[in-house]
């Protein structure tokens, strides 16, 4: 069924702002209300609250801040009017807000004088405001399409608190929806109301603004300046942060990380794990961890631009500058590093701590082999991938070098159970075998 061309809004005293004294004088095609508003700020507050209570939004169209026969007046139009909008047919950004709506509100505050009190009985009662509402809209009022256009600024602070708690746009949207659904008075239409449940696009915009203010730009001089600004804040919380601009490197030591350097295990074994391409600028985050009774605890966190040997060496020098003699249980470095398969990382570790031993983490090696087997460009059929991986695991977990060599020959298809030979697999496995001492 088609909607009527004009949709009136039913205005009663329940729709009117309770912070003001209101009296509906006339209620026909045009509604007249007398109110005790006394200033331009009162006008703005009244119209804003009226919009909240009727799920509408009113934009300022014209105003006069002072006059000889009145205190001031201001006119508002529905935000679906054609005011300051391109015609809907020319809109290229999505659904047009322009419905050419004619609904309007005009508010005038009369002078309170002896003469006006004689001619207007409402002025004597303090109702100097005259509010004239044309309530006929040319669009639906309670559909999702209309409610999504309502402004969402009122819950912006709530979302900024979510961001301060570490939530991103998607997580904060999901959490906020869950909070709303716990309210027994929630109406189905409230989930479509942008004032109550903002759209994902709005939340992402807020998060970008919040991020720029609190974390600074993602690159360039602004990022460095924000980092310098934050270092003092971090130090006040006993978090040590050191950084260098070229090559870009950041080292972070929190109180718990500093205490973990007192563990005897920190001078024995350290695990190093990097996660690359953490953002659009390809920054990498590297964790150093040591085992303890509660599991693995961090001893330092590093941020680098990419994964270059120079960046890693810069970071490792920074953590030694922070901890000085107390690093790694007063030893200056651990006996053993276990790392992922990153040549730049391993080389930087060897040059910074040449006295330490360096071994590859079995988990990362197995993960890399499994990823290689599933890469279609290597031409390994699906039904052989798991079998080849099983043979590689026999190499990794072999109890003796002789057992490892036998498992290696079996994996390339020369001895043991029959496996078709694949040149790329043999070449790849040979490279790994030649690095077995790592």
From TrEMBL:
Pfam families, per database record: MULE
PANTHER family, per the entry: PROTEIN B, PUTATIVE-RELATED, PROTEIN B, PUTATIVE-RELATED-RELATED
Domain MULE transposase: 285-366
Family matches, as InterPro entries: MULE_transposase_dom
Lineage, opening ranks: Eukaryota, Metazoa, Ecdysozoa, Arthropoda, Chelicerata
Originating organism: Araneus ventricosus (Orbweaver spider)
Source organism, top-level taxon: Eukaryota
Name of the molecule in the record: MULE transposase domain-containing protein
């Amino acid at each position: 069924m088609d909607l009527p061309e004009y949709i009136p809004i039913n205005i009663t005293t329940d729709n009117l702002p309770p912070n003001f004294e209101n009296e509906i004088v006339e209620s026909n095609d045009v509604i007249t209300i007398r109110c005790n508003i006394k200033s331009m700020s009162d006008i703005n507050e009244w119209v804003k609250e009226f919009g909240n209570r009727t799920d509408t939004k009113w934009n300022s169209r014209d105003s006069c801040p002072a006059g000889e026969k009145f205190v001031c007046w201001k006119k508002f139009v529905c935000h679906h009017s054609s005011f300051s909008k391109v015609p809907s047919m020319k809109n290229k950004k999505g659904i047009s807000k322009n419905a050419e709506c004619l609904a309007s509100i005009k508010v005038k505050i009369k002078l309170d004088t002896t003469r006006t009190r004689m001619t207007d009985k409402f002025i004597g009662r303090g109702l100097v405001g005259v509010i004239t509402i044309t309530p006929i809209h040319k669009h639906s009022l309670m559909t999702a399409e209309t409610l999504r256009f309502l402004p969402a600024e009122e819950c912006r602070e709530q979302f900024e608190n979510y961001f301060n708690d570490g939530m991103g746009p998607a997580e904060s949207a999901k959490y906020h929806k869950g909070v709303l659904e716990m309210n027994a008075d929630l109406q189905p239409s409230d989930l479509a109301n942008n004032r109550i449940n903002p759209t994902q696009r709005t939340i992402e915009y807020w998060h970008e603004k919040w991020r720029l203010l609190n974390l600074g730009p993602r690159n360039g001089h602004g990022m460095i300046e924000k980092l310098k600004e934050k270092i003092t804040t971090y130090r006040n919380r006993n978090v040590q942060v050191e950084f260098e601009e070229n090559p870009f490197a950041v080292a972070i030591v929190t109180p718990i990380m500093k205490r973990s350097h007192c563990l005897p295990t920190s001078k024995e074994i350290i695990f190093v794990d990097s996660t690359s391409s953490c953002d659009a600028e390809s920054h990498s985050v590297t964790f150093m961890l040591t085992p303890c009774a509660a599991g693995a605890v961090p001893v330092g966190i590093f941020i680098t631009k990419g994964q270059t040997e120079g960046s890693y060496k810069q970071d490792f020098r920074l953590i030694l500058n922070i901890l000085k003699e107390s690093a790694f249980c007063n030893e200056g470095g651990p006996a053993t590093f276990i790392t992922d398969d990153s040549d730049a990382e391993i080389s930087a570790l060897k040059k910074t701590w040449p006295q330490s031993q360096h071994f590859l983490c079995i988990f990362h090696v197995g993960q890399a082999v499994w990823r290689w087997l599933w890469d279609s460009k290597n031409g390994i059929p699906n039904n052989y991938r798991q079998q080849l991986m099983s043979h590689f695991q026999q190499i990794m977990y072999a109890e003796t070098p002789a057992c490892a060599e036998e498992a290696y020959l079996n994996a390339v298809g020369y001895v043991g159970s029959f496996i078709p030979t694949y040149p790329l697999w043999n070449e790849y496995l040979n490279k790994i075998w030649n690095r077995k001492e790592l």
